[in-house]
Amino acid sequence: MGRVKLQIKRIENTTNRQVTFSKRRNGLIKKAYELSVLCDVDVALIIFSSSGRLSLFSGNKSIEEILARYINLPANRRGR
Amino acid sequence: MGRVKLQIKRIENTTNRQVTFSKRRNGLIKKAYELSVLCDVDVALIIFSSSGRLSLFSGNKSIEEILARYINLPANRRGR
DNA sequence: TACACTATGTATAACCT
DNA sequence: TAGGTTATACATAGTGT
Q1: Superfamily of the domain at A14-77
Q2: Is the CB of A62 under 7 A from strand D?
Q3: What is its main location (chains A, B) (predicted)?
């Protein structure tokens, strides 16, 4: 999406990488929000930037509730 | 995105909701993957469908590692 | 350094099979 | 019901300020 087709590999230029991170993180959170509302599902999204800053999204329920729901699954139902 | 502008609210028709869920879940996971690679960041994504089925994504690290990183944050750094 | 713009690539709603 | 197609809306890479 954008002026040019982008290869999916690490962006080496630090400034470009940070700008892309900021834009795409916002886009990802928006998409997660839309999925949770449109389809009425629980979504939890955790992002750590390379500087260690945390970004979170969760739908109606809190992050903690959704993580607990995951953690409490029997191990054989956690695989992807 | 699509033939018509979509309101962001729960899709009432069950079939449509499931179709949209399947398509958008795939799109969301793809975007999460791209963010993790392009920007070299940790992303964890947990989705429970309305029937309780689990979808997961995480980048290089395992979901468990990323969740642990979140859970181990001091409480005052967990806010969104 | 951070926003705003816009040309272009991408995701997807409705349709089709 | 699931998978493929396509017209259209949306996200965003590069750019400008």
Answers
A1: Transcription factor, MADS-box (3.40.1810.10)
A2: no
A3: nucleus
Other CB atoms within 10 Å distance of the CB of residue B47: 25
Angle between helices A14-39 and B14-39 (to 10 degrees): 170
Q: What is the DSSP letter of B48?
A: E
- Which nucleotide lies at the shortest CA–C1' distance from B5? D9
B38-73 pLDDT tens trace: 999 999 999 999 899 999 999 989 999 999 999 999
Location of structure tokens 């079939």: B15
Q: Is the CB of B10 under 7 A from strand C?
A: no
Q: Which amino acid is at A26?
A: N
Using a cut of 0.90, tell me whether the model's pTM lies above it.
yes
